[in-house]
C-alpha cells in the first residue's frame, strides 16, 4: 500500500495543512509519497523531503503547474494516482479544487473532509454541518480523499530524509490561464494556522468596532475571525468568516465575541481546545459549547480584557 499526498505550498514553503495530511496518511499505513507540483519548487521539494514519515517526494516542476491551476494539476495527479492505493490532499480551497477533478478522471467517488481513519478503507467524516459523523467505507481501487487538517495532529516538519524524484509529465489542458491575484495582507497570523482566534459577530454592530478585537488580537498574537452575519453585513471581508461556509479552525483558544452560536458557526470552530464566549444574552447557544462564558456587554468587556493582557 502506497499513499500519494498532494503537497499544499505557498510562496516557496510547505503549507502547514500538508503536515496534517501526512499525519492522516500515516494513520492509513504504508509508504507515503508526496507530490509537489508547481514551477520553481525545488526548495519546496527539499522541505517536503524532510517531513517525518515521507518515503519519497515527486516533483513536477513545470510552467504548466505554475499557480497550481486545477485544470492542469488534476490530470497529473490522476495519471500518477493510478499507481497508488490512496490519493490525499488537504481540504483547503486548493485541495477541494483539485481532488474532485482527480476522482472524476479516475472514475471513483471522492471521500471528503475525513476527520479520522478507522482502517485503510474506512473513514469518519462530518455531515450536516458537523451535527453527525458518518463512517464511510470505500471499495474504490484508488481512494481519493480530502483531509480536514484540524482532525489530525501535524507530523514533524523535520526529521525525514526522503528521496526526491523528478516527474517529467506536463499537462497543459489549455483551458485556463493565470491572470492575476489580489492577496489580503495582514501582519496577524493566518486564521486556520493561528493558535488563538478572536472572532466577532453581529453584536460588534459595525466594522469600525472590530478595532477593539484587532487591538486585543495583537496583544495575544491572535488571528481575527468573524461570523457570517458580520461578513454579510459588510463589517469585515469574507476571508475572515469562520463556519460551515467559511474557514474551519481549531486553535488552542477561540474567543467568540457577540456571536450567538448558530450551528453553522459552531461547525467551523467547535473543535477548538478552549472556547471563551462573551455575549450579553445568557441564553445564547454559544454558551453550550463554551468552556468559559462571560455574560456581559462586549463594549465593556473587551477593553477591560485588553487592559489585563
Ligand atoms: C447554509 C448556511 C451556511 C451558513 N454558514 C455560516 C458560516 O460559515 N459561519 C457563520 O458564522 N454563520 C453561517 N451561517 C449563518 C448562521 O446561521 C447565523 O445566522 C450566523 O452565524 C449568526 O451570526 P452572529 O452570531 O454574529 O449573529 P446573531 O445570531 O445575530 O448573534 C449576535 C449575538 O451578539 C450578541 N450581542 C449583541 N450585542 C452585544 C453586546 N453589546 N455585547 C455582547 N453580546 C452582544 C447577541 O446577544 C447575539 O447572541 C450560515 C447559514 C446558512 C443557512
TrEMBL record:
InterPro entries: DHS-like_NAD/FAD-binding_dom, ETF_a/b_N, ETF_a/FixB, ETF_alpha_N, ETF_asu_C, ETF_asu_C_CS, Rossmann-like_a/b/a_fold. GO terms for biological process: fatty acid beta-oxidation using acyl-CoA dehydrogenase. Belongs to the ETF alpha-subunit/FixB family. This is Electron transfer flavoprotein subunit alpha. CDD domains: ETF_alpha. Pfam families: ETF, ETF_alpha. Residues 3-182 form the Electron transfer flavoprotein alpha/beta-subunit N-terminal domain. Keywords: Electron transport, FAD, Flavoprotein, Transport. Its cofactor is FAD. Binds 1 FAD per dimer. GO terms for molecular function: electron transfer activity; flavin adenine dinucleotide binding.
